[in-house]
Amino acid sequence: MTLALATPILAAPSPDALVAEVYGGGGNSGATLTQDFVELANRGAAPVAVDGWSVQYLPASASPSSQWQVTPLTGSIAPGGRFLVGQAKGTGGTVELPTPDATGTTAMSGTGGTIALVTGTAALTCKTAADCGTDTRVRDLVGYGTSTVVRESTPTGNLGNTTSAARTALTDTDDNAADFAVGAPTPVNSAGQGPGGPDPDPDPEPGDKRIRDIQGTTRLSPLAGRRVAGVPGVVTAVRTTGDRGFWFQDTAPDADPRTSEGLFVYTAGLNPTVEPGDDVLVTGTVAEYRPDGDTAANSFQTLTELTGAAVTVRSKGNALPAPEVLSVPAGYLPTAGGGSIEQLPLDPATYALDYFESREGMYVQADDLRVVGPTNNFNETFVTLAPDQNPTARGGTIYLGYDRPNNGRIKVKPGSATPTKSNVGDTWRGATLGNIEYANFGGYVLAAKSVGEHVPGGLQPEVTDAQRGYELSVATYNVENLAATNDQAKFDRLAAAVVANLASPDVVVLEEIQDDNGTTNDGTVAADATFTRFTDAIAAAGGPRYRWRQINPVDGADGGAPGGNIRVAFLFNPDRVSFVDRAGGDATTPVEVVKQHGRAALSVSPGRIAPADPAWGSSRKPLVGEFKFRGRTVFVVANHFNSKGGDQAMHGRYQEPTRGSEVQRLQQAALLKGFVDRVKAVDKGANVVLAGDINDYQFSPVVNSLTAGGQVVALMNTLPEAERYSYVFEGNSQTLDHILISSNITRYRYDVVHINAEFADQASDHDPQVVKLRPSTGNASVDKVVFLLEDVLECLPR
Predict the structure, then answer these.
(1) What's the confidence (pLDDT) of residue 10?
(2) 489, burial (CB in 10 Å: exposed 0-12, middle 13-18, buried 19+)
(3) Which one of 338, 374, 573, 726 counts the least CB within 10 Å of its CB?
(4) Could you read off the pLDDT of 590-622 as tens digits, one per residue?
(5) Residue partners of 255: CB distance under 8 A and separation at least 6
(6) Is 493 in a helix, a strand, or coil?
(7) Looking at beta carbons, which pairs linking 293-302 to residues 24 or more positions away fall under 8 Å?
(8) pTM of the model
């Protein structure tokens, strides 16, 4: 038997009028309502006239003999308003619909069928989703019940005599299953009246649910998916950009610290019609909005909100509730053994993120804030509510372990006010006011209504001192997708940093160099133009005429921005250090360690470490080069491990979060350590420098695996704890970039040079770092003599 599969409808989503709810069980056995209905809504900013339109119904089977049944419409649907179409009555039920705006006689099935909103009154003839999708008269279409043939993508769940399918928000994704939820029927007419006997001029009265009932005592609303009527509160703030809507708050709170008294009302693409101080009654559907979609793999938490709302303003100009002054507890989040914490009762006295959840939607105040993450391109800034927590010397908050989260961090984003662009260490004196919500980037957010006085902290870019004549200086710098297509200003800023802030290192390990045409994906892999522009800019800034060594990757094989072909590379100053070139290194040829004159050498230079190993899939392959400095060989490896993208959110619903990306980095670290071990097996006195973006913390299993056995030392761990950072993410000063040196190198000076990560104005999102080292001769006794002579020579007048 051959089954005909329904093709998803392809009509564009409706910009305004759409079907909001369908119910076919009216008057059936067990039903409360006496009548079937279709409820329409207008998500647009202008009224929609429906004169000459119709609502049409087709049975679920859409058999050849089935006919569309037509109910003509007249009138209009107000912006954000509802329009109720009553259909056939049954013999059961006890509650009448509110006065319908249009009435038909169609006896809809209680379990499944198709409803179409049509810009005409002629009966449709289509019997498949594909055919209906090409009929330009179809403004919206809903297939309810899982066996329904004609539908948008996937039909809604099955209905019954006591359930309807209601749109969860006034959005239209052309997927009925995604757009509609099954629940108790909640018909509303154009006057905003619900079921139970309409009053032609009713005085607005609160319903039986308060905001605290909607928010509940866990992270998920006990009323999710249900329509609630007449929820009272005072509007505290509005948002007219992005996810538009308004916050309102109950002025008669309960005594339970777990239940929030504030709530966000999502108005889709429409500006809210209310203003702060309005006393309102809000009717809408309770929704849990999960950024990036509600899938099991999505680790983000949710924002509780009302959607598809109708608002009654009872009075204006009322006083706002007094904002609660935020004060976080010592803990961060409860654990669920890797599972979801969303059903756990909130404990706001113990955990900071439980505390924020219990204030979700509420009007709050934060005093005398210290900036711990610079303002980004979206005008978002991380601040801390715990000013004494793990401070860095430059005003940030250091991140020192998975078990040591900084619970005072919170992101401030524009609400009705936009914060002043700020650097780490700046302060906002006085009160910052706004409303609490949850977002995928950063977790809990304070949407600003007003911001305290901006007081600059005076943060300045750092400058390292120059290497001495006998020191080899090796730096690492992630230049953030540098391509020949970038503006000259970016090249000039990066070049100035190399010369002035890094004191023109002898060797610069670069990460994120793109090919010559950047993200144009046309097969280009060469980066000569990018290197030429960069080295020219360095020379123009007064630096040396650097040369470069690199290997073009296989097109599209190394990850990063599609078409960019990012790679790692070396710049070196030929007046100070020489590069040992050995031909044969290409994108796919692995470098080997060979023995020459009793010492370690490379089979190819530059060369890539195990480029075909699956550990480097969609990731940069390490580049190793053999350098000569004062007659001593130094092996430098440029690295850029795979990113942390895909790890579960630190502030997410799964606790503790899974670090899925770590598996690949551990495999990469094993290959890198294996290379070092092979060098040391041939020559235990060899000088090795591993530098680059390891994409992991100094306390991580990845870095620990590199240092296991003692062959190399992670220099970041030699710094005082408060200085162990080169990157700022979500208000945490942390490190992703590293320099590791072989343990036989005992004379070195190491410096992380803070010039980017803490500043709102950045040339890159990473800070560079540099080590000035004295390579070993391979013999500790000889080193003492050589180093002594170098010291003496350095002191002689020139």
Answers:
(1) 46
(2) exposed
(3) 338
(4) 999 999 999 999 999 999 999 999 999 999 999
(5) none
(6) helix
(7) 299/648, 299/649, 299/652, 299/653, 299/654, 299/657, 300/438, 300/440, 300/649, 300/652, 300/653, 301/219, 301/342, 301/357, 301/438, 301/443, 301/651, 301/652, 301/653, 302/219, 302/220, 302/342, 302/438, 302/653
(8) 0.78
